[in-house]
Amino acid sequence: MKTFLTLTSFSPIQKLFSLSQESGRNAAKYFINTYPKYFQKDYAQPHIPCLMPETLEAQIEEASEAALIERIRMRKVKAAVDLYDQLLQAGTSVSLDVTNQLLDLICFCGDHDPTQENVPEQRNEETAKKGRASKASGLLKATWKENNNAGRIFALLSEPNTHSYSALIRGMVKYGAYSKAFSTYTDLLNNRLKADVHTFNALIIAAPEVKEKYNEKWELIVDLLKQMAEQKVKPNLLTLNAVLKALRRCGTLGKSQAFPVISEMKALSIDPSLASYNHLLAIFYKTGAPIQGQTDILQEVMNEVSGKSFTCLDTKDMEQAYRVHELLGVGENWRLLGNDFQQSIYYARFFSLLCMMENIDVMLKWYRDLVPSVYYPSSNVMRDLLQALDTDNRLDLIPQIWKDIKQLGHANRQNLVEELLTLMAREKHNQEVQESFAECALDIKKIYDTGDRGKVLLSWTAGSLIDLISVLLAAHRRQDAWEMLKLFKTHNRVPSEELLNKFLTCVKEAGEVNQAVELVQISAGFCLPETPKLIQRVQQEFELTDLRDLKPSSAHHLCSLLTACSSPLKQH
Amino acid sequence: MATSLVRQTKLLSIVSSQLNPAACFRNIHCTAACLKNRAARIREGKGDKSVTYEQAYHPHHIGHRKGWLSQHTSNLQGEDGAAERVVEDVFIRRFMYGTFHGCLADEVVIKRRGNLLVICAVMIQKLLPSKFYFLIGYTEELLSHFYKCPVKIEMQTVEEKVVYKYL
């Protein structure tokens, strides 16, 4: 029963299990850190530091700079700020360095203690799609308050230097106070100080938020870059990434500007990293939406970047698809597959491409490789797979696929099951295949009858009933087919003419006259137009010897039916 | 020197025999009664008590019809720490019994491989799987921090307790 957690699974049940295991661990950590005295005894030789309870209390008690430094190191924001205020009131001056560190801490943590967050699984689901979410700081709930500690302490500083300004501006940008960040920047310029590269990066990130139109945004960014050049601040990789990220918000302008930006950066010997390529792709493609053209850009980028990989698979080119998949295997590139949702899109596209383009053996090879270890196909992908089997005439593989469908939990999808049944019932195959089909059909029947704990998952339709019975008949399972026939009445569905004809042929082979009569009765019960033809067939095909086995009740029924039906015949 | 030693021991024996004049060769028995013929045995009753395989066979069948519930190397020649392992095992069993209360289908098997402590348990499907995973994560983390060694739980679930016979 216990399912094994695989690294890249995305099925929601697996996710639930891994998250619940993680929350169990966090509960244990809470106990360990709240009652550390029970966990102090050290058996391990050599000492294992990660298995000891975390010491969260500050050691140095008296009010001094060293104590302040310690609290900053331990990321205790409130305690650090209180201690700083204490020190100022006591009259001891705190050096500019330490104050800058304190400012850094406050601006990074947003003026509240960093809470003990659950470290989520590596593939944490983000609720918003990439590019649609407002900021990367969607996880941060705090916003920059007006008179918070950072601003206050900054104001208390007699001579703020570049570091202090940069800390303040970065904090403002991180927590959403974009216009304030720009005004602080103008303050900095008024004080004739130079900003450093971090400040500029933060301002570039903030630029798309302050302006409305695309070209204004771009102009602001260009302006900032020019100022950077004037102040002789060298841009670094983060600058490139910030510019590209801002360009994502600039629409079509972004597409035209992206490549020149990259070439300029290359001239400054800043190599684009994986994140830059990510931004680049996001500028040109929208994840999750199908785009037909623009294959050449993908190719160019891929040619540049040997050994890196991408998320989109929008082209119909099989070779490219294989290349991308190969790149995925190199090193850490699986991280670029994004969160589980996007991963599923990638694999779904990959599989549908495979189904369309390749022949069935290659398809099956990939299927065996990837399912279920890496990817849980959705029901659409299973349908594509069935169609591929159909085109390649490998319908004998259907029972195996059915087992997989059951295991993946798609057995309650009405259209998938019905399609399966139709495919099985369509043609006549050789004996063993028919046997396996019949087993499969009986299995399907079980699913229809009672779901888990009495819940009915699927409802019978006429088509599915007919298909199922034809499959059973083709495998000469007359008894099972006979029971299924009764289901027509209970579920209010009407059997088709050819089904009844097939049944009659089968019954004739077995020579069961009584069953034949019952069959005709059923057909009459449904008032089907082909009842007279059936009666004719019964009359013609069953010889006198058979008729001797006829039970008296059946004989009576037969006579009544004959009379009932011969009158409409006479009218015609 | 030797003569003085001999005289001292003679003195000692004389003194002790005078102190206990009668029946002075019996000593006091200080341990509790072991009841080794009643431990881990379920006695035959009316026939309505269901009993698992583990419970049905008595301790003298260990090694013949039963395996060991706790596997470690400290009982080998030259190895030490056997007593500590026993105490750890007792704690772990009580911990598992309490944490997975009512879910244990059979005794917990504890295996030690090097530093790793593996706890193998068979559970009844009384809780939802996500709740089982929560408890597994909790137990592994807590016991690892407690014993300063990696702890892994290998769990298997059954629908009901597997009955071997009725006593």
From TrEMBL, chain A:
Among InterPro entries, the record links this protein to: PPR_rpt, PTCD3, Rib_mS39_PPR, TPR-like_helical_dom_sf
Cellular component GO terms held in the UniProt record: mitochondrion; ribonucleoprotein complex; ribosome
Q: What is this protein called?
A: Small ribosomal subunit protein mS39
Which family is this sequence assigned to?
Answer: Belongs to the mitochondrion-specific ribosomal protein mS39 family.
Q: Is RNA-binding tagged as a keyword?
A: yes
GO BP, one example? mitochondrial translation
| Localization, UniProt | Mitochondrion
Q: Which organism encodes this protein?
A: Sinocyclocheilus anshuiensis
Asked if DNA repair is a keyword of the record, the answer is no
Q: Which Gene3D superfamilies match?
A: Tetratricopeptide repeat domain
Q: What is its main location?
A: mitochondrion
**GO molecular function list:** ribosomal small subunit binding; rRNA binding
Keywords from the named record? Mitochondrion, Repeat, Ribonucleoprotein, Ribosomal protein, RNA-binding, rRNA-binding, Transit peptide, Translation regulation
Superkingdom field: Eukaryota
UniProtKB/TrEMBL annotation, chain B:
The record, for Pfam families, names: MRP-S24
- Give the highest taxon in the source lineage: Eukaryota
Q: Which family does it belong to?
A: Belongs to the universal ribosomal protein uS3 family.
Q: What is this protein called?
A: 28S ribosomal protein S24, mitochondrial-like
Identify one Gene Ontology CC term for this UniProt entry: mitochondrion
Mitochondrion as a keyword of this entry, yes or no, is yes
Q: Which UniProt keywords apply?
A: Mitochondrion, Ribonucleoprotein, Ribosomal protein, Transit peptide
Upper classification of the organism: Eukaryota, Metazoa, Chordata, Craniata, Vertebrata
InterPro entries, alphabetically? Ribosomal_uS3m
Gene source species: Sinocyclocheilus anshuiensis
Instruction: Please classify the protein's predominant subcellular localization into one broad category.
Output: mitochondrion
Which GO BP terms apply? translation
The record's subcellular locations are: Mitochondrion
